Known about the structure:
Blueprint: E1 2-6, H1 16-28, E2 33-36, H2 69-77, E3 84-87, E4 90-91, H3 97-110, E5 115-120, H4 125-131, H5 139-155, E6 160-162, E7 167-169, E8 185-188, H6 192-201, E9 204-206, H7 219-235, E10 244-249, H8 272-284, E11 287-292, H9 299-312
Helix pairs in contact: 1-9, 2-3, 3-5, 5-6, 6-7
Amino acid sequence: MQFGFNLPNSGALASPEIMLRIAREGEALGFDYLTVTDHITLPDMAEPGYPYSESGAFYSTDSAHRHEMLTLAAWLAGTVTRLRLVLAVLVVPYRPAVLAAKQLATVDVLSGGRLTVGIGAGWLKAEFDSVVTTPFAERGAVTDEYVAAFRSLWTEKKPQIDGKYVHHNGLLLEPKPVQKPHPPIWVGGESGPSVRRAAKLGDAWYPIGTNTAHMLDSLALYKAGIERLRAATEKVGRKRDAVSLTYRIKRYGKDVPDHASDGGRRLFSGSDSDIIGDIHALRDLGVTALDFDFERPSEADVLREMRSFRERILAKV
Length: 317
């Protein structure tokens, strides 16, 4: 099992100097990957709407102050030398498919093949209305077609694409990604369409357990989600276990309630031994990667928690 951490790319911790120190400390501590998130322009997120917290507000109090994901990923490619760079997640409709395929290929080349492309269809209509030229209601179909186009552009010498949203007539897109056949695609999201997208297009399913509309916050609920994924994977003609399992944890320990939405114990709540037990349980289910968000008010607090978590928990699993 691999372990990652979220690199804060918004708010007061998003200065180049702080991000550099946190990223390099994570690398020195032996984490396997870091994650970065994707927003381009935001409304005032003090108002409820964020789907992954109980309050509906972003965890960060200054979430609109942030760096563009792919520009940041290119910078990180030369900042750290061992960590994988996981996009958590790229909102696929935000960037034209051919441009995004080129940018992603460039990051993979610059990083020596360390890019993982987490993808999602997005959820914030106000941001879509400002950024995207395709309709918000069609974001799922747009995402599916764009991801299929990524694969063609990354693997074919002269790809020809004539879809509803993407048109490409045999022009060259070089260099191709270092990773073959292409960088891994981790499909985020917890809804039915997201699970079906993971089954059809994903190398891994990459949910957050605390989507208030589609909770996967107990072991029983997550097991049920895995079964939906396996059934959907078989339905599209792939092997039942073709899609790997990964899982993203936004908050843990005493920062979250003990009880999950189904009345059971909430995953990654409680004591260090509880969290260690959850890691073992998910590993037994076949989960291959877990990442944690160590966001704290200050850089010193983030670094202190990363070091402590590594010693208290990860060293014991």
